[in-house]
Amino acid sequence: MDVVRSIELGVVSAGAAILGSMLGLGGGVFLVPIFTLFFAVDQKIAIGASAVAVVTNSVVGSTVHLRSRFTNLRLAMLLQVATAAGATAGAVIGVYANPRVVNLIFGAVLVYAAVSMAMRRQAAAVGEPVDEDELRLGAVYRDPASKDPDPHVRYAPQRVPLGLGVSGVAGMLSGMLGVGGGVIQVPAMNLLMRVPVKAAAGTSSFMVGITAVATASVFYAQGKIDPTVVVPAMVGIFVGSQLGSRLTRRIRTQNLVVLFVLILLYLGGSLLLRAVGITLPGQQ
């Protein structure tokens, strides 16, 4: 094992975990593009490593979100049914998919998520008034970074059937790409279901670990789990996820959205260019 390379993978994984925990994406959305673009890791190996690392990130990061009451457990368990089913199907497809096709899909997903959040930044900060909540999915949490006299945010998820359908699609994409589904789940909960972004991130962080287990199982069965990549990634994820989930409490929601948009636009654009055979300077 190349020690220097392992350290580099671990440091990058820690950074991905910090962002992943803060945004509820599980870290995998950053790991796969970075590993393939900058470290020349085989795409399928990177996806398998990401799926395992996402489980670690979810276990560590979601505990802090739970204590902060950002996680909506009722909503998470409802959406998880569709997400887990989609993840299993997506993982089987992902093992055999052409790398260029995966890059194209992955890049398009990242750019779409970034643009969606950028166009609706105000939706990220607020929830819907709890007027109609027939499924009893409404919740309240205290936002320590809020400057309002009352820092408590109350909301009730809207358009739940549509959210379930999107969760199934998110699961399928997460299975193909090893990203845990948060890159679709967070914008979907925020933009379609009107869940505030911190609650969406906390709920997604809880969900992505369960989703990634299904993905990792399929890739393991196909021999796509490489310990020399997985172990550094897990160590970095473990350290970074604890820091990231704590930073969520202190950073304003709008700043989280801006960070989300900029990073996903860069990684998504890089993958789209890679799909057509163009490599940016500094990438491998």
Please supply descriptive tags for the structure shown above.
single chain; 284 residues; mainly alpha
**Relative helix content:** over 70%
In total, the number of strands is 2
Major sheet: arrangement of strands: 1-2
Shape: globular
Describe what is shown at a glance.
The chain has 284 residues and is mainly α. 70% of the residues lie in helices and 3% in strands.
What does this structure look like?
The chain is mainly alpha-helical and 284 residues long. The protein has one domain. 70% of the residues lie in helices and 3% in strands. It contains 10 helices and 2 strands. The protein has helices at residues 3-23, 28-38, 43-67, 73-96, 99-119, 160-177, 182-192, 197-221, 227-247, 253-275, and strands at 139-142, 152-155. It has a two-stranded antiparallel ribbon. Helix 3 (43-67) runs parallel beside helix 9 and helix 5 (99-119) packs parallel to helix 7. The longest helix has 25 residues, at 43-67. It is globular and about 50 Å long. Residues 122-128 have low confidence and may be disordered.
Please specify the SSE layout and strand pairing.
Elements: H1 3-23, H2 28-38, H3 43-67, H4 73-96, H5 99-119, E1 139-142, E2 152-155, H6 160-177, H7 182-192, H8 197-221, H9 227-247, H10 253-275
Antiparallel strand pairs: 1-2
Helix pairs in contact: 1-2, 1-8, 1-9, 2-3, 2-10, 3-8, 3-9, 4-6, 4-8, 5-7, 5-10, 6-7, 6-8, 7-8
